[in-house]
Each structure stands twice: as structure tokens, then as C-alpha cells.
Design a protein that fits this description.
4 strands; two-stranded antiparallel ribbon; mainly alpha; disordered C terminus; 5% strand; ABC transporter involved in vitamin B12 uptake, BtuC
Length: 292
Amino acid sequence: MQEFVEFTLSGLATGMIYAAIAMSLVLVWRGTRVLNYAQGAMAMFTAYIAFTVINHTGSYWLGFVAALMAGLILGAAEERTVIRPVTGKPPLNAVIVSIGLLIGLEGLAGVLYGSGYRSFPPAYPITGLSIGSVALGITENDLFTAGAVLAAAGLLAAAFRYSSVGLRLRAAAFSPGVARLLGVRVGRMLTLGWALAGLLGALAGLLVSPGTFLYPNSMDTIFVLGFTAAVIGGLESPVGAVAGGLILGVVLNYVGGYLGSESVDLFGLAALLLVLMFRPTGLFSAAPARRV
């Protein structure tokens, strides 16, 4: 029973990271119908920026803020310089340029920082927590991870629902033609959406890096699992993205704990294939997919 509790709590913490990547993909997909294959590479690159700032200043939080700001800038720059020129062209064009950006960022990281594995510092201690003599299987840093992702999701949900900027973002995503007639600067709103997606990706990179080594390809697997979480939750649903991340995190932790870590990637791929075959709109998507 104790093992089950440990695997569950640890899986929820890991699932929060998948949820952050999934939300970043949903933000972009809702607005532009593009899957940003460079999201993982952007998260990795912002983690390197945080690593550099931390090493030079000794302050984790300065590195944290620098990475989030870098994520905002990278997201906006990608939309303006890479995605916008192929808007309205065949969908494959956007796929190719985002994959090209993925390769370019990973190559640039290798040139600037080398291909060696680097240890990334956590925000809080990674010693296990317990209640009395019962180990919980999570750490203070896991609690910070869960709190940071939930806070980001809550702030975004509140902004989209209650602020004028959020209303314009939703209008630009769901009906750009009508939004333009009402005076909404649709291009700016799409850029803002990509910037927020970049910020969420940067947050995921910061949160996952203490549990793994940082290297140019370090976010590739995390991106695939984040994409799986987004598909499970439905690419139209931010709430589904969080739920999909938590479900995937817990299930894969059970698989790793009971069947061995070598089975985790296989089960992650199997989950993606099953959802795509039997519920392609996702488990939490009630509405049919929009046509653009």
C-alpha cells in the first residue's frame, strides 16, 4: 500500500510537468491549428539560460525569471519570424519549419554549451517527505512543481475568462474574421498566445531539469509525453491538458514502479496510439473539432 501511495504522489508531480507542456501546445493549437514541434527545444534552451544566470549570480530565482522571460521572447519570435510567413500555406510547411527550429535550437545549444550532461539545481530540497514513519515518495521540490503549474494554469484560466485581453485572445483563436471586424488586432493576439506558450514551456523545462541531466536533447522525451497528455485531454481543452498530464504521469509511474523503467516509453507510446485510434478528439473534448 505504501508503494502505491508513493507511486501515485510521485506520478502526480511528474504529470504536472507533462501538463505544462500540454497546455503550451493547446494554447498554440487553439489559435493557429499548428503543433509546435520546437516547444521542447525552446524549453531546453531556456533552461540553459537559467543555468547560466544561476552560475553567474548564485541566485536560482534570477535564473528562474530569466528563463520565463526568455520563453516569452522565444515564443513571440517564433510566431513572428517562422510561423507567420507560412500562415495560409499548406499545413506541412508549418510542420517543417517548426521541426527545423527544433533542430536549429538543439544544434545551437550544443555549440554554445557543449553536449555534456549538466546537473541543474532544484528550487527546494529533493529529500523525501514523510508523515511519521510513512514515506510519501515526494519532495519539497515536487510540491513546488505542482504548485507552480497549478498557479500558472489558474492565472491563465482567470486571464482568459475575466480580462479583456483574454477575451480578445479567445476571439482571435475561435473567430479571427469576426474579431478583426470588431477591432481586435488578431496578429498581436496570436503573437501573445505563442509567447504565453513559450513561457509555459520554459516553466516545464525549469521544473523537469533538476530530475534529469540538462543536455541539448534533454526535452525530447518530455515533449513527446507532453504531446501525449495534450492528445489524451483533447487539443482544444486546457483543462483536459492538465487532466491528461496527471493521468499520464500517474499511469507511467505505476508502469515504471511495477514493471520496470524500461517499459515507460513503450506504454507512453501505446497510450498515444490508443487515444488516436479510439478517441482522437481526446477524453475531455466534448465538442467536435473546429474546421478552419
